[in-house]
## 1
Amino acid sequence: MVQMKMKYGIDLGTTNSAICRIENGEPTIIKTSRQKDILPSCVAFTKKQTVIVGDGAVDMLANDRRNAVKRGEKETTNIFIEFKRTMGLDTPYISSNAKRTFSSEELSAEVLKALKSLVLDDNINAAVITIPAKFKADQIAATKRAATLAGIEHSELLQEPIAAAMAYGFNSTKEDGVWLVFDFGGGTFDAALLKVEDGIMQVKDTEGDNYLGGKNLDYAIVDEIMIPRLQQQYSIDELLADEKKKDLLRDAIKTCSEVYKNELSFWPYYESPDEFKSIGIDDEGEDIIIDMKITQSELRPVLAPFFQKAINICKDLLKRNNLQGSDLDSLILIGGPTYSPILREMLKEQITPNVDTTVDPMTAVAKGAALYASGIDSEVKEEIKSGTIALDLSYKSSSVGTIECVSVKLLPDECTGTIPSKLFLELTRNGWSSGKIRIDEIGDVVECLLMEGKSNVFTIVAYDDKGTSIPCFPNEVNIMQGIVVGNDVLPYNIGVEVYDRSLDKDIFILLKGLEKNQPIPAIGVRNGLKTPKQLRPGMATDKMVIPVYQGEYSVEGTSAIYNDHVFNVSISGDDVPAFIPADSDLDITLKVDHSQQMIMEVTFPVIGEIIEKEVVIGQRSTGVDVFDLQNRLDEVKRRQASLQSN
């Protein structure tokens, strides 16, 4: 079994998804069965209990919505879309055909499976999957679970704007400056501020809105343009007066509004295509057919408020970093809605004229994820074929220099064939060769000449002393020249809740090292805390709870319940080997990895022991948060007792 680099990058989007890998040094999108770069993130379950993902499911959804309007009621649907917006929540998606309920992560897993199936020549068990920059801990954990359900044993998560910036940097000649990634997707908006010096890219700050995206635009077109037009053409007042029927009509029209939105990004006006079908029956029994002409000028006042919200987020992001739009060298557009000339004009007027459109807004995230993946060691080891020489390779996957060293050594215990008494290796790339270098288990270093501004793929060939080639694995090295990407950063401050006696309330205290925008992986520490109660060994009823929270800026000392509760780390008497008195010292260390998964270590100096707990984050309830209610009740009771005593 030999370890190798990851190959695949996946953009798991609200509306559309894509998969990419490096081929011949270039990030290459894997086409769908309809020869498209993107796969709609739509999942359908048929009566035969088969699963359909992508364009076929979208076609079925449009037909379902039209039929619902005609019936005047919505049957249990078997087609689901935009479920990324409920990632991390316990929102149920009930399918009568499948005879079961699905979660957002299970539906996302079906999209991932469909993307994997597009790759016919490989079995994908490791990949980089992108997430919005402002995803919270429960949303991140749900994405990891979706990957596991889809058979991706090792998944690394990468923030979408970082992936986009990597794709942009790969093709750009700009090696210095300040970049702003403007990522307006189907369901989320992200902005990322990056500093680039000598090709080394570092994230400075991020901001966003997990509920602002193309979906908002679609329904705005429905409500403000299309329904008023239909009221002039058809008798639908009774239909609109019934809220349930009105919602059914809005959903059916939304399918058409998406077409208008997309087409009006490229044309000054758009008229209904002939393939638009009846979307229902009006109050007088007449078929309602979308037949209207909409212009860009009509669209402007409808879409501008949503675009303005995203622009204001960017303005605030720049302001808190003491920057102005004039300081930006590039504003990089990502996401389908960024094709809109209305948005582009607003950005040039309010942020910067340096709006860059050189990357494909629809595929940049997947391409950046693939570039990032090519530099990550996969935790999934591959079994090599019989008669193959196993190698251990060590090198930097990205470089701003023109020469990069690759350390190579033989792994005799992993080889599956006879090892020649003398073994030689040669690395080649487009006419360049390292020459044959003798190799053994001690190893050697090969200096590789890099082409500038390219992903350099070097083929590795092994030879015996007679010059006969022998299969080896890995058999290639990929080094991206021209840009080095820094790590993702924490989108929120991470801390814990403690009781402050002087304030008589539970407050948020920051774990030092886990501040917002701290590069990850990261480690946070807080010393000198106190145990609220005693812990007796073997007594499960003796329990201490450490609530973990995420918060925005200036959260230190605020009421913990006004921040975002992540998870409760619970330590009981069953966890400790010796008696710990109440009010004993304790220290907390929280480790956050690349994908923002967490492990907490609680140190009890009184017994010299460290208790380690994995932070396992489950689905967040869409109902009342009992934990928060209990905290509020406890705080009110303490304040009441304090008032009574005074």
## 2
Amino acid sequence: MTEENSVNPFLKASTLPCQLPDFAAIAVEHYLPAFEAGFAQQLAEVQAITACAEAATFANTVLAMERSGAVLTRVANVFFNIASSDGTPAIQAIEAQVAPRLSEHDDTVLLNAALFERMMAVPTEGLDEESTRLVTEYRKSFTRAGVGLDPAGQERLRELNGQLSSLSTEFSQKVTQAGNEAAVHVQDPAELDGLSADDLATAAAAARAAGHADGYLLTLILPTAQPALEVLTNRETRRKLHLASVSRGSGDGASNVLSLAATMASLRAEKAALLGFESEAARSIEPQTAPSLDAVHAMLSPITAAAVRNAGAEAEKLAATAGHTIEAWDWAYYSEQIRRDEYGVDLAALRPWFELGSVLENGVFYAASKLYGLAFAERHDLTGYHPDVRIWEVSNADGSTLGLFVGDFYTRETKRGGAWMNSFDEQSTLEGTHAVVVNNLNIPKPPAGEPTLLTFDEVVTCFHEFGHALHGLFSSVTYPKFSGTNVPRDFVEYPSQVNEMWILWPEVLGNYAKHYRTGEPLPVGTAEKLADASLWGQGFATTEYLGATLLDLAWHELAPGAPVQDPLAFEAAALAAAGINLPAVPPRYRTGYFNHIFAGGYAAGYYSYIWSEVLDADTVAWFKANGGLSRSNGDHFRNTLLSRGFAIDPLRAFHDFAGRDADTAPLLARRGLV
């Protein structure tokens, strides 16, 4: 072992609580050597499995495979979270080197014919249900990876995987760059009329952080819709902000990603054909809970027609309110007027009641304590990977440790847009490990000493992402492969969406929604008004979501061939063909910044949110019918579903929870599509 590796913190398990990575000891120069050591270690372990002279057994083949790659898992779990949340130039340079190497390594393992032969020879008689499932899932992994291809096919597959990995990394990095470049710099504060004093201070701080000597900077969040569009009274400022949002990644220059997207779609189509599928969408959906691509379209088609009709009616009402034709940059502003005038809801005015610390500890954590008996203790003695990161130890009702929750809430130039959950470690009784999960958000950081006041959408995001965290924390399985959120993509959003139901639950809302200065609760009736107003704007919300969903499917239903030459024309044609023909309602994500599908693992999978929402809406109805916020309900949900990971079929887990299959009626009612 070299002197460099002898002190590399990734080469052995951390001794910190729950094996939290020792961020105080981790330096940039540790990553590449740790990856190299991890690659070598797992390949040696695979070699030992295939060289075993004994007949294949569960222990010497499947279990040995499940335990392999410990160093690689440790470094990858940390590195790829850092690459997303604090992707400095040094980290980005390492990512560009590591991503194709990791793809090559995975191919070396999963295309190993001798290893596959041993997997297929493992007898399953006498194994328990979870162990039998582990054998089955490993066999599927090899088959899906292309182990059955001839040598020429495998060689081309390796080339495609390497190219796609490199392009995905480049796409993600360029989207972050494009978002930073597209931020709108404003000199005259009069052009920002409508923003609160706190928002102006945040925008001024953002301008200084970006290197501007004066003025204000409106930074962009990842989706098309930008929160400031709800309150800016200056129509020209709104137009500039909207155009900056929808055009990022699409202009001339280094941050243009359209050609990357087109190339990736073409390569994915070729890969799908090589593996025997009609399209990448068909290949991607095959292992999901959705039975087929046709089934996904069958669900989306009638919802799309109804949503577009509703959005059209909303546009007419907005135009009547505005006194002119509604453009995309007008929609949010006049929609908020209707919420104020007709429903008595002013979302911007509610921000003083949504202070981050209170939302988190008195809302998100409080709901989890009432439902599941959890306790949260902030660990100021533990070090995160960035000064803004906070860490809590999470305990069960009996005082036993459940795991660690890591919160990284603020935006920064080195963080990719959006919000997400990752795991630094996963629960497994095989390894005796607890879950260490992180939630990343992108909340603008206020000046020092000022409160962090959230928009209502950011409150929703806090609860949503913590639903993912609970899914990881509650895992109670034997094998890491099945732990926590390692479930089909079109099921993983379900628990997170369910957790949003507690936002307006009276007991929870009353506990966190207090004015940050006076401590006064929300005005009486606010929650009811918010609930009444929830159907307003569902036409827009559903249409913008479906626009992104159908655009995703269009890119991944392409036949193999040359890349699309004009991605923006392709995008427009795809939306028109799908019946999404409202210029004032652009997709939630356009091709130039659709990180989910070109860099986030959701290729042909953005439909997952509404597919999962069927289960989510039905589960919310179940909770309401059974008494709501109670330990008995929470424990039932935890024990039958949240703790099961992928150790059983997810739809079976839902049936175990609800006592029946899912009903679509609650979703249709929620979306105003009845």
## 3
Amino acid sequence: MIPKIRTGTGGTYGLIRYLFGPGKQDEHTDQHVVASWNGFAPDPGRNPHYTLAQLANQLDQPVKAIGDRAPAATIWHCSVRADPGDRHLDDNDWATIARRIVHATGIAPDGDTTACRWVAVRHADDHIHIAATLVRQDGRLAGLSFDRRKAQAEARRIEQDYGLRQLTPGDGTAAKNPTSAERWKAERTGRTETPRETLREAVRQALAGAADEAEFFDRLREAGLRVKLRHAPSGDVLGYNVALPGDRNRDSEPVWFAGSTLAPDLSLPRIRRRLTDGPADTAPPRPGTSRTDRSAPARTRRDAAGTAERATVLLDEDGGEAAAQLIGAGELIDALAQTSPAATRAELRDAARAFERATRSHVRAERADIRALRSAARAIVHAGTALGRGEDGGATAMVLSTLVLLTLAAARWHSARGHAQQAAASRQAAEHLHAAYRHSAATPLRTMREKAQALPEPERRRHEATIRAALGEPDTRTGHQDRTAQRFDALAATLAEAEKAGHDPKALLEEAVDRRELETARNMDAVLVWRIRLLADLPALPNGTGKPKAGTTPTKHAPGPPATRSAPPTPARSTTDPHRPAPRR
């Protein structure tokens, strides 16, 4: 159940006329009063002898009685909407809900016969509107301290009492939702989202890894936004406003949004505080090749994977250090969302939008160094769009595998502090990242499995034994258990590559297992694959399908039933899914 409160000026007639009218698109039906301050308010919806003006005049009488002493804002309007999945509530239910809301907010406490006048109007099955005046009948002004917070708290109690869907309580740090007028305008103009939402995402992306204020504003303009700076008499910039090209009001003027109205953390003072944690390297990375001839997008994604893993460890900390890491992680996801290939762009954009909520809470992000995360975000942005194949695709899977663990760690951190909305947003971001990961990892892991199948039998068995010992799993050789061992194929191929490159496979595997957050993974083996490839500096995408060496034979499994010998390899889902339950250690 969602209550939304607004205040306004003037008399109540305009609001009453809208509530009893047809609506913007004839969506209002059976308009009628379900409750009022005295139980006898005129109902122009059900009684033709009453008019809208009569109802508005009765509501406005206390305001008119005090004349010039009336406050500037005299109208209090609260809509209360049930969730689409909730059961049907009748007029008696809505009347009781209205009385509970006006009591909780201070509009009309129970037993107060001289409180504000109010009326609850129902013109749809799933919601009511409460219209009230902010002058009490005894001439005093209504005391509405924290009325929005009180309405939300009462809504949570109503949900429990009526058996309705339990919504997560807010903490006042969420970005402002688009208004009904903004949504209607977007629908009317053919937009899939409101300008407020489009601008919020564009500002976040422009901020991701920006070195300074000037670069931030340059990125906004390069994104095609209109930018207006507010200056003090001294010439210093006090704030900024942004607008979408073509978005104009009825006077044909641009519709401007201040950064603080898009989200609390997008005000210029908050942005400046974040920019003090500037990237370690303020110059854009120069195109080039490493000794393995990796592209710039691949290199920056590999570096970001290591940075994100270190940030994940810091989420076990309490207070501002962990909260700051979440802000840096949000910039990293934003950077990936704007440089991802088309196949994963939608999921990563959804992940960035979801995780944006997880970066804001009442835990102050202070005295924390997030330069590494901001540098990683900056490098990804300047490296340009990654390809969805080859080393770019494999490196993308590598960093996404780590970010899935990071967002799950963020959910755990928020849950431990009672941040319900932020925890839910973190889990939602993890699901979107997971979907993007599965797409990116499919080809690299398939190639690794093929290379493992081509390893000589003794070598493959040796690596499998190393894996089982590190994970604390028993050795098996036949039957169904032997078939399930194929889940180790990508990991065995990775250990073989590392050994060929001069590394100790056992030491590498033990180091990867000892790192934190492994227990969070749904597929421990897939996480270990990417950790080892990063530790050993192996290509994210092995070069082609492995072929047996001269004088060797392909891997053979122990004899079993015909169905066992001819069974296809384990489906890719079991290897590419980093969220399946991990084996016991």
